[in-house]
Amino acid sequence: MAAAALPVALGLGTWLTGCGGAEAQAVAPAVVPVAPVVDIAATQGTGPEDQILFSGGGPATRIWLIDSKYDKIVAAIDADGTDGRNVPVLKTPHQYTYPELHDNHTAVTNLAMDKIYGTVWGSYDEPAYAIEYDPKTLQETRRAPAGRGAHHSAMSPDDKYLYVANQYEKFLSVIDVATFTKVKDIDLGAMNVYPSKTSYFWKTDANGVSKRIPIPTKYIFVTVTGEPPVNNFTPAPSTVAPTNAVAVIDIATNTVVKKIPIGQSIHSVNLTTDGKEAWVSGKTVTVIDTDTLTIKGTIPYPSTHQNFSPDGKYGYLTSNGSLMKIDRMTWAAVWKASDGGSAHVQVSNDGSRIYTQGTNTARYPYLLGGRPVAGIQVFSAADGRLITEIPFNNGTHEMEIMPKSSLGLAPVPTAPPPAPAASSPAPAASSPAPVASSPAPTIDGAALYASSCSGCHGPLASSAVRGQSAATIQGAINAKTGGMGSLSWLTSAQVSAIATALIPQMQ
Question: How far apart are CA 346 and CA 356, in angstroms?
Answer without folding.
Answer: 6
